[in-house]
UniProtKB/TrEMBL annotation:
This is MarR family transcriptional regulator. GO terms for molecular function: DNA-binding transcription factor activity. InterPro entries: HTH-type_Bedaq_tolerance, HTH_MarR-typ, WH-like_DNA-bd_sf, WH_DNA-bd_sf. It comes from Amnibacterium kyonggiense. Pfam families: MarR. It comes from the Bacteria. Residues 16-146 form the HTH marR-type domain. SUPFAM superfamilies: Winged helix' DNA-binding domain.
Amino acid sequence: MLRLRDGAGPVTSADRSELAERLAFVVGGVNRRLRPPADSLTHIALSALATIDRRGAVRPGELARIEGVAAPGMTRLVADLESRGLVAREADPDDGRSHLVRLTEAGVAAVAAGRRDRAEGVAALLAEIAPEDLRTLEQAVTALESALLRTTPDPARAR
């Protein structure tokens, strides 16, 4: 059992490892619960759309790097999203050999629906948590958000 719960003694690397394992298990379980139905967009498709939504028009290779997938896989994904009318390709003004991928109105709506669906799924889980534990969870989420912001590379610097 973690000593973090009772505040006894310093936090050791073993404590951090145990907490990391538990957190990975919980995150995995939450992600499985939030998995979209089989006939809807996959997690990676929604993630790619959300990235385009945040960054604006992007080259497919840059999108692949951001999403952590191989370029051929992203090429297939972009083609699928384009066939569904969620993204459109446009000429890259900085490189005539390349193109940019941007969201269509349907793509913007898909991102909003995906975020709403995930938030509703998380809200259902939060409804099962006691109010005092929600306060603790809010502090943990704030700490994780800060860590993510500090450790996530800025894709704009990679250009």
